[in-house]
Amino acid sequence: MTPSAMTPSAMERLWAVVPAGGAGTRLWPLSRALTPKFLLDLTGSGRTLIQATVDRLGPLVGDRVVVVTGAAHEQAVRRQLPDLGHVIAEPSPRDSMAAIGLAAARLELEDPEALIGSFAADHVITDEAAFAACVREAVEVAAGGLLVTVGIEPTHPATGFGYVRGGEALPGFATARVVTEFVEKPDPERAEAYLRSGEYRWNAGMFIVRATTLLDLLAENHPALAAGLRAIAADPSSLPERWPGLTRIAIDHAVAEPAAAAGRVAMVPGPFGWEDVGDFAALGAMTAEGPQGMKVIGDQSLVLARQASGLVVSSTGRTVAVVGLDDVVVVDTGDALLVTTYARAQDLKGLVDELRQGGRTDLT
Amino acid sequence: MTPSAMTPSAMERLWAVVPAGGAGTRLWPLSRALTPKFLLDLTGSGRTLIQATVDRLGPLVGDRVVVVTGAAHEQAVRRQLPDLGHVIAEPSPRDSMAAIGLAAARLELEDPEALIGSFAADHVITDEAAFAACVREAVEVAAGGLLVTVGIEPTHPATGFGYVRGGEALPGFATARVVTEFVEKPDPERAEAYLRSGEYRWNAGMFIVRATTLLDLLAENHPALAAGLRAIAADPSSLPERWPGLTRIAIDHAVAEPAAAAGRVAMVPGPFGWEDVGDFAALGAMTAEGPQGMKVIGDQSLVLARQASGLVVSSTGRTVAVVGLDDVVVVDTGDALLVTTYARAQDLKGLVDELRQGGRTDLT
Question: Which residue, A15, A137, B346, B356, could crosslink A64 as a Cys pair with Cβ 3.0–4.6 Å?
Answer without folding.
Answer: A15
